[in-house]
Amino acid sequence: MATRVRPSNKRCAVIGGSGFLGRHLVETLVDRGYSVSVFDIRQSYELPGLTFHLGDLCDEQALLPALKNASLVFHCASPAPASDDRELFERVNIQGTRTVIQACLEAGVQKLVLTSSASVVFEGKDIKNGQEDLPYAGKPIDYYTETKIEQEKLVLQACDREKDFLTVAIRPHGIFGPRDPQLVPILVDTARRGKMKFIIGDGTNLVDFTFVENVVHGHILAAENLRPNSPICGKPYHITNDEPVRFWDFMSEVLVALGYAAPRFHLPYILVYGLALLLWLLSMILRPVLSFKPTFTPMRVALAGTHHYYSCDRAKQDLGYKPVVSLKEGIQRTVQSYPHLRKGA
Ligand SMILES: NC(=O)C1=CN([C@@H]2O[C@H](COP(=O)(O)OP(=O)(O)OC[C@H]3O[C@@H](n4cnc5c(N)ncnc54)[C@H](O)[C@@H]3O)[C@@H](O)[C@H]2O)C=CC1
Ligand SMILES: CC(C)=CCC[C@@H](C)[C@H]1CC[C@H]2C3=C(CC[C@]12C)[C@@]1(C)CCC(=O)C[C@@H]1CC3
Q1: Which of 63, 80, 202, 313 has its CA 20 to 30 A from that of 19?
Q2: What is the pLDDT of residue 227?
Q3: Residues enclosing ligand 2, CB less than 6 A?
Q4: Can you tell me where the transmembrane regions are (predicted)?
C-alpha cells in the first residue's frame, strides 16, 4: 500500500506569490521558518531556499507539483482590476479558483486561505464601519468585484471538516506599501498628467487604506488559527489598518511627500460619476475599433467619492488581530520606497 507523506504544517504554497501582496507574504513566511513554494504565471524575484513553479492556476496539472506536501495554501492571485477584462476575470477568479480547490483536495492540502476583498460588498454607496454580515453587492460596479464575490463564495463553501479541508477568506481594503504597482503609481501618473487638481465631492469621505504588512499579518493569523474546531472555518474577515482616513487627505499626504501639489478644487460627485459612466460606455461601444482605458472609471470615482470603511472587530476577536504598523508609519515607509516617483526624478 502506498504511504501518504503527511505534510509538515510549516510547509505552504503561495499562489500569486510574485505579486505585490504575495511577495510580502512569502518574505514574512520565510522569516518565520515556513518552507514556501511559490506558484505564479511570472517570476518577479529570487530568494534563497524558495521554490518557484511557473504556470497558470487554471491548469491543475501545473498546480499540483507546487502543492505537493503542502498542508497550507494561500491563494492571492488575480488579474489586476485595471485590466477590466471580463473573460479574463471569469477564467482566473472563478474557473481558476475551482481548479485551485480541486488541486488542494487532490494534493491533500488541509487549509486554504483566500485573499478576497472588502469590495465584495461595495456597490458605490456609503459603507461606514461595515461588518462581515453585509450582503454581497447585488449590483457590483465592475467585473473584478463581480468575480471576487463568486471566488469568495466558492472558497468558503468548500470548507469541509469531514474532508479535513478548512478554508477562510481575508478581505483587505486599499492595500498600500513598498512595491505596490497600483495605488502610488496611479496617483503619481495622474498628477504628472496634470489631472490631480480636483477633489471629487466635499472631500470628507472616510476610507480604509491598509499597510501591506498588516494584511500579511492577518493572513498568517488566519492560517494559524484555522483548526477543525475553530469558529473561523468558512468565514470572511476584514483586515484593515483600523484607522479610517479621509480619502483625499491620504492622497494629498502621499502627493505632497513626493513633491506634488495636493488637489484643491471641488467637483460634484454625481457629475464626475456620470461622466465616468459615459466614458466607460463609450469605451465599450468603441472597443471593436478603438481601444482606450479611461483613468476615471465608475469604480474609481465611487472609491474616491464615497465612504467605505470596515470594522475589523471580528478579526480582533477570533484571530487576535491588531495592526502591527500604523497608518503614519506605513505612509512614511511607502513614500521612502518610491524615490523614482518623486517630482523631478
Ligand atoms: N491591492 C489591493 O488594494 C487589494 C488587493 N486585493 C486582492 O489581493 C490579491 C493580491 O493583489 P495584489 O498583490 O495587489 O495584485 P498583484 O497583481 O500584484 O498580484 C497578483 C499576482 O497574481 C498572479 N496571477 C494573475 N493571474 C494568474 C494566473 N492565471 N495564474 C497564476 N498567477 C496569476 C500575477 O502574476 C501576480 O503576480 C488579489 O487577489 C486581489 O484581488 C484585495 C483587496 C485590495
Ligand atoms: C481605498 C481603495 C480601495 C483604494 C484602492 C486603490 C485604487 C482603486 C485607488 C488608488 C489611487 C486612486 C486614484 C483614483 C481612484 C482610486 C485609485 C485608483 C483617482 C483616479 C480618482 C479620481 C481622481 O481624481 C484621480 C484619482 C487618482 C488616484
Answers
A1: 313
A2: 96
A3: 173-174, 182-183, 186-187, 190, 196, 198, 200, 207, 209, 295-296, 300-301, 303-304
A4: 270-290
Q: Confidence band (pLDDT; 50, 70, 90) for 1?
A: very low
Rounded CA gap, 159 and 227, in Å? 11
What is the 298 CA–ligand 2 centroid distance (Å)? 11
| CA distance linking residue 307 with residue 2, whole number of Å | 56
Ligand 2, atom 1, residue with closest C-alpha = 174
Q: Which of 34, 143, 144, 260 is catalytic?
A: 144
**Per DSSP, what are the bridge partners of residue 26?**
none
- Residue at 209: amino acid letter: F
Residue 67 domain boundaries? 11-177+210-240+310-325
96 is a domain residue: yes
This prediction's pTM: 0.95
Ligand 1 atom with the shortest distance to the CA of 75: 39
Instruction: Evaluate whether residue 200 is within a structural domain.
Output: no
Q: Looking at this predicted complex, what is its ipTM? A: 0.94
**CA neighbor of 29 nearest in space, from 48, 44, 12:** 12
Ranges of beta strands (E only) in 78-132 are: 111-115, 127-130
295 Cα to the center of ligand 2, angstroms = 9
Measured by CA distance, the residue closest to atom 36 of ligand 1 is: 19
Q: What is the CATH number of the domain that holds 155?
A: 3.40.50.720
- Ligand 1 atom 31: residue of nearest CA: 40
**For residue 8, what pLDDT is reported?**
63
